[in-house]
C-alpha cells in the first residue's frame, strides 16, 4: 500500500468510487475531480499496486497567520474499508494542513458514525450543523473544526 498524489489518470476511478459511496448525494464527476486537481488543491490516493483504493482532497487558503484548510472529500472503496486506509488519507491531509499551520474544517453527514469517530480521533470537534446540506437526499451535516497544529504534534490516538 502506498500514498501518492492523484493524477488525471486516476480521475475515472475516483468517479467510479463516488458513485458507489455517495449515490444519493450528487456524487462528484470526472469534471469536478479534474477541476480540483487543475486548481492545485491537494489530492492524494491510496494505492495497492496500480489500483486506487481510496482518495482524499484538501484546499488550503489564506495567508499567514490566517491560513485555513478544508477537507473536500475522503472516500475508500467499501471492499477495503476497515483496513486503516481512511485514517492514512486523513493523516496525509492533516500533515499538509499542518505545513501551513492551518485551522482545518470539514462537513460530514450526521449519520456517518465511522467518519465522525475518525475525525474526532484526529482532533476535530463539532462546531455546528448544516441542515439539508447534502443534496438531493437532504441529509444534515456536522461542521467540524480542528485547531491549528504544528507538524510535530501528535494526533492523540497513540498510533504515532
UniProtKB/TrEMBL annotation:
Nucleotidyltransferase found in the keyword field: no
Example of a GO MF term: N-acetyltransferase activity
Matches recorded under CDD domains: NAT_SF
Positions of the UniProt region annotated as Disordered: 140-160
Domain N-acetyltransferase: 1-149
UniProt keyword list: Transferase
Keyword Transferase: yes
Coiled coil start-end: none
Gene3D superfamilies: 3.40.630.30
Official protein name in the record: Ribosomal-protein-alanine N-acetyltransferase
Organism of derivation: Allosaccharopolyspora coralli
Lineage: Bacteria, Bacillati, Actinomycetota, Actinomycetes, Pseudonocardiales
